[in-house]
Amino acid sequence: MAPPTTIRSRDQALAPLAALDSHTRCQLKELVQWECQFREADYVCFPFKRLFERCIAPDKSATDYEVTDTYTNS
Fold it and tell me: Which residues are paired to 32 by β-bridges?
């Protein structure tokens, strides 16, 4: 199971990224979750994509920011 991730608004998530220097490396990560509903005698499942940016500072500390927006799953 994945560790809990703090939920922030887009502005809250991007504010720390603006302060990152050129020595910080960031990678985009993707997680697909499934939303399932029981219909009649079957389950119907739909994928739901979530995007995270993992930034690694020069001191090797890593921070994950969720960057999923309304267009990610359209």
Answer: 49
CA distance 61 to 23: 12
DSSP letters, 34-67, are EEEEEETTEEEEEEEEEEEEEEE-TTS-EEEEE-
| Chunked mean pLDDT (size 10), the chain, 74 residues | 71 62 77 92 92 83 84 83
Q: Which residue has the tokens 């960031």?
A: 26
* Structure tokens given for 11: 């502005």
Q: What would the pLDDT profile of 25-38 be if each residue is shown by its tens digit?
A: 788 999 999 999 99
